[in-house]
Amino acid sequence: xxxxxxxxxxxxxxxxxxxxxxxxxxxxxxxxxxxxxxxxxxxxxxxxxxxxxxxxxxxxxxxxxxxxxxxxxxxxxxxxxxxxxxxxxxxxxxxxxxxx
Length: 100
Description:
Elements: H1 20-23, E1 26-31, H2 38-49, H3 53-66, E2 68-74, H4 76-88, E3 93-97
Antiparallel strand pairs: 1-2, 1-3
Helix pairs in contact: 2-3
């Protein structure tokens, strides 16, 4: 007996099943506060997130003026340790699902 995929003139459609958590993008958000200096936030973004100085300065300015900023995007598993490293330095940060 021929299987469905062996019959002439038919196409087999493959369904790819993935873990939804892996497909979704997350964002690492750094929050403004009245405690940490620009210099400390910039240094942290360079050392923890791998930003260059200019990127880190721009992020710090946006965090200061907007109250928060998504400084990095990626998987939850990638961003969670970065978030912990930032909060260990006394800076407020969260990992949230990306909305766009």
